[in-house]
Amino acid sequence: MKDRILFTVLFLIVLFCSTIYSQWSNDPTVNNAVCTQASTQEYPTITDDGNGGAIIVWIDLRSGTNWDIYAQRININGVVQWATDGVPICTQTGNQSDPTIINDGSGGAIITWSDFRSGYKLDIYAQRIDPNGVALWTTDGVPVCIQDSRKEFPTITSDRKGGAIIAWDDTRNSNLDIYAQRINSTGEAIWATDGVPVCRQTDQQTKPSIIYDRYGGAFITWEDNRNINSDIFAQRIDSNGMALWDSLGVAVCTQTNDQYSPTITFDGNGGAIIAWTDIRGGIDTHWDIYDQRIDSTGGIVWATDGLAVYTQTYSQNAPAITSDLRGGAIITWHDTRPPGPLDIYAQRIDSTGVIKWATDGAPVCTEFHQQGDPAIISDFRGGAIITWYDLRNDGWSDIYASKITSDGVVPVELTTFTAISEKDNSLFLTWSTATEKNNLGFEIQRSGDKQNFEKIGFLSGFGTTTEKHSYSFSDKTPNAGKNFYRLKQIDLDGTVSYSQVIEAGMILPQEFSLSQNYPNPFNPATKIKYEIPIVEAGHAPSVLLKVYDVLGNEVVTLVNEMKQPGSYEVSFNPQQTTNHQQLTSGVYFYQLRAGSFVQTRKMIVLK
């Protein structure tokens, strides 16, 4: 005779695809929501928070009348830390746009943006926030440049002394030129009022990108039209804002047709790596991503006019870059390849410009709707955190983020983790991985209070693999009521990380009961169901289930053991009697005894 448990388990299926130690989702169709406020959010930028997480800033139309600046902090696990949908940085009248952000060295950040509060021109403002998102300077920011001209596309880097260096494009000389200003930790300007010129060449210089140079100054790169087409130029300035290279900047790429949207990071060796969008193949072809490395003197390190990061079919645009902390860089962009219409991809290059991940790049977000304008920051483990605008929610533009490791995949990409019912009052755990890296295995842990976990088993992993694998484990002795489970993933080098906790809460019977057997009458067998409630914590009652003939003689004992709370089912075949006697057609009785509970029901055997 075989009894089978039927108790219902209320279970939570946790879907996430991230490094298992966190709540980060690296499933490129899921990701992590940063702001899904019921309005439009766009143009996010990002910096590290100094503790493994990041601070993200964006423009926001939730006021319904003009664009404001909002920010949110996410911790090392990808969990938002401030108010839902972010905290306001600037909600002044008029539009605020083009925010950029840098760590302030104290867990907070300095943010700069273009500001239309004057009503007739764009100015540059800045604000500093603490680790809780509280503004430290004047409400709605301090002026960086309010010269009587149009100023756009500010970019910011730390001066490593609690302040920042900010660059922007500026029309004060009729053409667009590049200017810069340094501010201290209180927001006061250090250089000349309204900034110093970085490049005042004829024609247009615009959309600068900046990075600290390790010596108190900065590298700045920009789009430049001095040669009719748009090219990429760069300059290095010292801690006083003085140019260290050619006064008009050095050429990074002057290939035919246009190059634009440059982005820059340090190379770990006194120089910098620059990436940009390139249409050297002609305006009728697709856009590509190229990069170049320059040394501390502005000298070109790699091939003239740069190396290709991605030049396949379809177009790639809006690159963003961060250091991989190994002399190379991680570059992200939005991409029109299928499934499209715009997705987010990334690629890592080493110190020689050689790509390190798959030729096509690593998918960061391939959710069905449109995603674009990514921003990126190092996670200080050789990987990166990437953020972008996202149209997946009913056409509203929201802010999402994802994390990627140093090799473009997650160590253990967990896709499902579930708990379901099993026989004998057990809980059956299952989980699946899409990829694994250096995975020794999983230690299964259980808790009754979500605080104190104990090891209840271990399953070996598959080392390093890009194939899907499934795991299962049966917990034979779960707690009555709620059970909390997590997986402790152990790398081959002993590094450990934890999954998110899932809850399996059993819905248990409230009282003893014995159901009518089914079918009835029956031949050759029938099933009998009964339920055992929680009698008292930690106590399982003795359960006795027997079958009798009409004279009261025992025919067979079906159950005689301690039973945990739950709903059970047992089969009865008249040929399986205690003394192997053949039962004749007729009426029989079955009785359940459990503690003081006694119930008897009638059954009919047909031959």
Total count of strands: 44
Q: Mind telling me which CATH architecture of the largest domain this is? A: 6 Propeller
Structural class: mainly beta
Largest sheet: 8 strands, antiparallel
Rg is 33 Å
CATH superfamily of the largest domain: TolB, C-terminal domain
Regions with little confidence, pLDDT below 50 for 5+ residues? 1-22
Classified by CATH, the class of the largest domain is Mainly Beta
Q: What is the strand content?
A: over 45%
Question: What overall geometry do the principal axes of the alpha carbons give?
Answer: elongated
Helix content: under 10%
What is the arithmetic mean of pLDDT?
88
Number of domains: 3
Q: Given the structure, what is the number of helices?
A: 0
- Kindly report how far apart the N and C termini lie: 21 Å
Question: What does it look like?
Answer:
The protein is mostly beta strands and 607 residues long. It folds into three domains: 32-404, Neuraminidase; 412-507, Immunoglobulins (Immunoglobulin-like), CATH 2.60.40; 513-605, Macroglobulin (MG2) domain (Immunoglobulin-like, Sandwich), CATH 2.60.40. Helix content is 0%, strand content 54%. The chain is built from no helices and 44 strands. Strands 2, 31, 32, 33, 34, 35, 36 and 37 form an eight-stranded antiparallel sheet that branches. It has a four-stranded antiparallel sheet with strand order 1-42-39-38, with no helix packed on it. It has a four-stranded antiparallel sheet with strand order 3-30-29-28, with no helix packed on it. It starts with a strand and ends with a strand. The relative contact order is 0.11. Residues 1-22 have low confidence and may be disordered.
